Amino acid sequence: MVAAGSDKAIAAAKSKAAEANVGAAFLTLDILKDSIPGGPFGFAFDRGCFHSFDGPADRSRFAEIVAGGLAANGIWLSEIGSTDGPPREIGPPRRSARDVMTAVEPHFEVLRFESSAFDNDQDDAPRMWLCLMRKRQG
Fold this sequence. Notes:
By secondary structure, the protein is α+β, with helices and mostly antiparallel strands. It has helices at about 5-20, 55-70, 95-105, and strands spanning about 40-45, 70-80, 110-115, 125-135.
């Protein structure tokens, strides 16, 4: 699933990396179907992909794919739409802590899991889970 805003997000990320003088590769692909070139990686960052999968099997498959792309002891930082906060009509899909743990725990050791808010320009930013994980060995 390649999100509609991917090209815009990639352009913004490239610009920020260039401003910070950081070398990074940015790719647009369907993570459930396409292979990820260049790995294994030491770090993966996800802002909004995990929570886009409605089914538990797809979320588990996504976590397995991220783990497969990481080097030994690789780190994954994920920002996931959470069930915290008041009901809302718009914003990221809402996933429970159980939804997250069920998908990631077989592949990752959860180092930090906390409630936070997406950084955006809204007065009442949607709540999220901030999940920092290390790839399990074995």
